[in-house]
Design goal:
9 helices; mainly alpha; about 80% helix
Length: about 170
């Protein structure tokens, strides 16, 4: 006879084994399908904007693991939105997790001006989340990494934004 705790532990172990047995590519496709289904269900909701906002965490989780272009774009958006929401709630660890996932997705997208601008939105929230967590060196590294990327891409707006924020850290 299994207790409730034993069953829960066994279920978690079975879920972990099954999840690990799925290839990374298939896992990414499954997360993408779940994320797109959640998004579709949310847009059919009766409240304007409310249904999707309530599922930001789930949408960010699933679409944050996508590997196709359109889903990656959506993943960046949901991870950024979830990161902003977490920062608003002073949940800095969650904000850092979501915003880092957004940066990882952006790494798979072109380094063109629209994506560099979007990357800045992520970086601007991420460095502040690190600052709020008293991770001063990591906050500065995030800005320096963006500055280097903007310099490699020849993106003057990004260079100026990163320099400005770096100057504020040193004040």
């Amino acid at each position: 006879v299994w207790s409730g705790e034993t069953q829960a532990g066994a279920s978690a172990l079975i879920r972990e084994v099954l999840y690990d047995a799925v290839s990374l590519r298939r896992r990414a496709r499954l997360h993408e399908r779940v994320g797109l289904a959640l998004e579709s269900a949310g847009t059919r909701g009766t409240r304007v904007g409310g249904a999707l906002e309530e599922r930001l965490e789930e949408l960010a989780h699933h679409l944050g693991q996508a590997q196709s272009g359109v889903a990656m774009e959506k993943g960046v958006d949901y991870c950024l939105r979830a990161g902003r929401e977490a920062r608003h709630l002073w949940a800095n660890a969650a904000a850092i997790r979501h915003l880092t996932a957004a940066l990882e997705l952006l790494d798979g997208l072109p380094a063109d001006p629209p994506h560099l601008r979007q990357r800045w939105e992520v970086v601007d929230n991420l460095w502040r989340a690190h600052l709020d967590s008293r991770e001063y060196e990591r906050a500065q590294e995030v800005l320096q990494e963006y500055l280097a990327r903007a310099q490699r891409a020849g993106y003057p707006w990004g260079m100026a934004a990163a320099h400005w924020q770096l100057s504020l850290i040193h004040i």
